[in-house]
Amino acid sequence: MVNLDFRYEAESHKKLLDITYFSTRKLSFSIFKNVMLIPATIKGKSGGVYNQDGSLIDETALYLECGLEHVDLKDIQNPVDTYSDACIYMGVYEPCWGHFITDCLKKIWFIKSNSYSQFNNCRLVFLSPKNTKLGGNHRRLLELLGVDVSKIVVCTKNTLANELIIPDSSFFYDETFTMHYTKEYSDTINFVKNLFKDEGKKEYEKIYYSYSSFKKKGFKKTFGEEKLDKFFKDRGFLIVHPEQHSLDEQLVMLANCKCFASTEGSSSHNSLFLKDNTEVIIIPRGPYFSGYQQTIDSIGEFNINYVDSALSAFTSKNGPWSGPNYFYVSEELMEYFKLSPAQKSVYRKTNFKDMKKYLTYNCVDLAGRNYYIQNIYSEKFFHYLSLNSKKIFPGHYLKMKISHFFEKIRSGSKHS
Fold first, then answer.
1. Higher per-residue confidence, 267 vs 314
2. Strand pairing report for 259-263 and 206-209
3. According to the model, what pLDDT value does residue 317 have?
4. Cα separation, 355 vs 159, whole angstroms
5. Distances from the Cα of 359 to the Cα of 270, 314, 355, 369, 406, angstroms
6. How far apart are CA 299 and CA 379, in angstroms?
7. What is the pLDDT of residue 401?
8. Where are the domains of the chain?
9. What are the angstrom distances between the C-alpha of 257 and each of 4, 18, 30, 200?
């Protein structure tokens, strides 16, 4: 069940609920001779497995190529390495957790199938342009799934494979860019879920997965999430920063969880591991939909609630998942939890340092950016800003910059 009553605007989201994400496709595998493993080392080119004629073999890229050009094998004079023995192709290794538990598990079904017995001595090959080994939680997840991780090879160089077994994908795009999953994928996830039981640990009954402590050099993804941390903590939620916990610790939390909340993204994708009938609260980051989350929502029997509590007016069109995003305690969020007028007034009395930082981050250098404009998030943002502008930026220069930029957006002119 998916509830959209607490969205700013729900009509466009409702259309996604009519899609059937489960696929009945029959999975098999193919054996290819003398193919090239290309780990996407060329900018703008799609990594994957290529035939000698230069054609990219289906379902060997990270996900649907999304407009990326194929590598021209003429540009590759000689392979750097050769796999002379037969290997099994497992896909492109993407460390981002949300991709790993979807795109990187889509061929695991083969290892648990009867067909694997004739290839169980083969190496398991992941492609990666950067990472030479799997991260700790990634490796642990594969161990829990019964994978012999000593057989895993992370291929980082252009390599000729004399014989490559390529299983079909159990999590995949169709021609409309919609993601689907098969029974084999849900079986993979359920296998992990069943390893960790609900032990009645009350401290984990309500958990909020937060990005507020996530740090990446030279990159600011979210602003204001500390306000959500406080709001959920006040409601009795345990605030969890997933990067600070082992996978086993997280799976224990999720197994004992009765109410799970998160902003949309890799953190919310962990709803895969919740037990059925869990209450799920997902806070969208901005004016776009995560195709991954829509598919994940359909895999389990959850009580899912989308609650808007973001004002991400400056989300990039070219990479909306990267933000930057701005969160606050919205009227919708307070209504969801049925706060009294007195309780609401507490959260309306807020400091605006994080909004000033968000504005400064996005407006000091406007050149070269490309934003979503004229949507419900920007409308809400402008209204919120107009009510509190004097508290946010007394500085004359920044005020002029922002005023000029807002005028462009409101007039509908393109900004890039």
1. 267
2. parallel
3. 65
4. 48
5. 31, 9, 6, 14, 11
6. 34
7. 55
8. 2-19+194-342, 29-168
9. 22, 28, 40, 9
What amino acid is encoded at 4 in this protein?
L
Nearest to 173 by CA among 28, 67, 18, 300: 67
**Least confident residue range of 170-179, 244-253, 391-400, 406-415:** 406-415
The DSSP call for residue 50 is: E
Residues linked to residue 82 through DSSP beta bridges, in sequence order: 160
Three-state DSSP class for residue 351: coil
Tokens representing 115? 């067909």
Distance (Å, whole) CA 138 – CA 108: 13
| CA–CA distance, 226 with 353 (Å, rounded to integer) | 12
Q: How far is CA 296 from the centre of its chain?
A: 11
- Give which of 251, 258, 220 is closest to 354, Cα–Cα: 220
Tokens of 54: 């230069």
Amino acid at site 382? F
Dihedral of CA atoms 406, 407, 412, 414 in degrees, nearest 10, equals: -70
| Residue type (1 letter), 261 | A
Mean pLDDT of 370-394: 70
pTM of the model: 0.89
| Structure token digits, residue 160 | 């000729």
* Cβ atoms of residues 71 and 46 within 8 Å: yes
Sheet holding 238-240, edge to edge: 2-6, 303-307, 279-283, 259-263, 206-209, 238-240
